[in-house]
Amino acid sequence: MGTAADDEESVFEEYRDRVDAPLRRLFREYGTPELHWLVGGMIANVFARATSLVPPIVLGVAIDAVFLDRAGYDLLFLPDRFVPGTDAAQFWLSVTLIVGSFLATAVFTWIYGVAANNFAHRVMHAVRVESFEKMQSLDMWFFDGKQTGEVMSVLNNDATNLERFLDNALQNSVRLGVMVLGIALVLFTENPQLAALTLVAVPLMVGFTWWFMRAVEPRYTDQRESVGNLNTRLENALGGMQLVKTSGTESYETDRVRDASFSYFRDTMAVLKLNYVYRPGMELFAGLAFATTFLVGGLWLTTGTAPGPLTGTLSAGQFVTFLFLTQRFTAPLAEVSNIVDSYQNAKASSERVFGLQDVPRRITDGDGDVTLTDPVGRVSYDDVTFGYEDGDPGAPTTADDGDAAWADGGVAAAAGDAAGPDESAEEDPVIDGVDFVAEPGETVAFVGPTGAGKSTLVKLLLRLYDVDEGAIRIDGHDVREIETASLRSSLGYVSQDTFLFDGSVADNVRYGRFDADREAVVAACEAAEADEFVRNLPDGYDTRIGERGVKLSGGQRQRLSIARTVLQDPEILILDEATSAVDTETELLIQRSLDRLAADRTTFVIAHRLSTIKDADRILVLEDGRIVERGGHEELLTADGLYAKLWGVQAGEIESLPSAFLEQARERRAETLSDDD
């Protein structure tokens, strides 16, 4: 049984379908700067293929002139004045030309290989880097629920397919063209009638190739899609291995991987079935061309008379040249299937690469960029309204706001009941008319049930999304007018979901402040209550902590995250349930470091436990995206509203929210919706 995500369209499908002539675009945008490598490789390839045709020609002339003594030593590319007069000298000349042609072929092939690989790898280096850079610039709606495995497939597998095409198939296409044209020229020069008979298979092979390309293209597209889906499924399963094991759902995940793998198998077989028709077919056409040449030429020589409508004579040397060159002609034509394979694969991959690159950005720096210089830290939300658009792939609904369960002992469930069911939640704004001001140095806390909009409020401040109505201002500047890098460098964000890179402790703490010295890193860790445990690690600050910091506990990871923010020294601080996933003792340590960090800064706190924010300068209680209560801790307790009831639940004074209060909450919400109408 698949998930809803399994049934969604590909992340890039809409934009991929809009890509026009993807391979032409690849050459235009990325190949042009490296064109000198391509041209050099092409020229060397032409010379390599041309010199490889010399031995059969020399051999044919030598047979007739030296061994059979039935013709003069007449080579197309050698002036008569360079031809010696004796058979022995002509023999040694033939040997020299054959050996020289092999040496020349080897040299030009080496030059072609170096140039072709330089072109291919330089182009794909640029494609990978620019695609990754573009991916990083995309808005958060792109990453909300997106399939990381598919993105990895584009940056890795699809880029590799393009690299193989540029490295092998492109140059092989040139080699094929040179070989076919060169061989055709030589054969028509030797004997036009037999040449026409030998080459009659070429138009048949061209038509067969055209049919194959039209038939296989959609199958390659499906195959690339299934590769992305399989990568996504594997990445999700491996990333959530702890959940899988603790839930005992190994068989369920195996079934999902089996389904994705079978889809890939099915789509791959659909491609291979056509290949099994095309490749033998091309080899059959090429083989028939060789067999026809051998049959007609053999009869011509053995009978001494041109068979059928053919006229003239055919020498033994010419016949040998025809056989050698037809065999040379057969092999490249039989390889057309590999070139077509690579072309179709590269076309599908380039569509996906440019599909990623064409995903639009919504969060962009305005024309009048404002740079924050030593901001005072006054933050105002002016009648802010925001909702995730239905067209945003993966945009969370109000029930998936990023707010974690914010209370113990069933409080989240009770608060959810208070909000009541809302089947039209996706159509309602997540933030609705929020208006408040945080003065410099104040601490403002957001509390409310899951899905109330708390995390969304701070994401709007970080400008991970843009407001639909109203404005958010820092020191009077609309955040949409502030240079994005300047804005985010002034904000420090400590999330409940701590992310650490695979590297040393010191490298993770200085992430974003890469020029910080060891003393600054240690001071930041001391401020975050992390120095003691770091020094007890095997290599101290140089200890590698593994991917996502797997070698550390949750509390240790959280304290390193706080240390990283301390080192950043932001003017405005955002604490998004920073102690929600740790034990009480660790929470006390972390809370102490957070209090130290928040001193004299404008601070926004999303509360998990209400006891951690009772000393905030102002507490804003959110429900359904609106501020329903505001004030200090004692003031809100005196008001005996939602905050007071939830405080009572967490303090153990009441076991749960009373049904009468829940009913009042439902009525209050219904009245609010009615007023909106």
Mean pLDDT level: 79
Beginning-to-end CA distance, first to last residue: 40 Å
CATH class of the largest domain: Mainly Alpha
Global Rg? 36 Å
Coarse shape: elongated
**Alpha plus pi helix count:** 25
With strands numbered from the N-terminus, the spatial order across the biggest sheet is: 6-7-8-3-9-10
User: How would you characterize the largest beta sheet?
Assistant: 6 strands, mixed
- Domain count: the total is 3
What is the CATH architecture descriptor of the largest domain? Up-down Bundle
Q: What do we call the CATH topology of the largest domain?
A: ABC transporter transmembrane region fold
How much of the sequence lies in strands comes to 5-15%
Question: Can you describe this structure?
Answer:
The protein is of the alpha/beta class and 677 residues long. The protein folds into three domains: 10-357, ABC transporter transmembrane region fold, CATH 1.20.1560.10; 379-490 and 573-676, 3-Layer(aba) Sandwich (Rossmann fold); 498-569, Rossmann fold. Helices cover 60% and strands 8% of the residues. It has 25 helices and ten strands. The chain has helices at residues 4-7, 13-16, 22-31, 35-52, 54-67, 87-137, 140-143, 148-190, 192-198, 201-239, 241-247, 250-303, 316-334, 336-357, 411-419, 454-461, 484-489, 505-509, 518-527, 531-535, 554-568, 584-598, 633-639, 642-651, 659-676, and strands at 379-386, 431-438, 443-447, 469-474, 477-478, 491-495, 572-576, 602-606, 618-623, 626-631. The strands form two sheets. A six-stranded mixed β-sheet has the order 6-7-8-3-9-10, sandwiched between helices. A four-stranded antiparallel β-sheet has the order 2-1-4-5, with helices on one face. The longest helix is centred in the middle third of the chain and has 54 residues, at 250-303. The model is unreliable at 1-10, 391-426, 653-658 and 668-677 (pLDDT under 50).
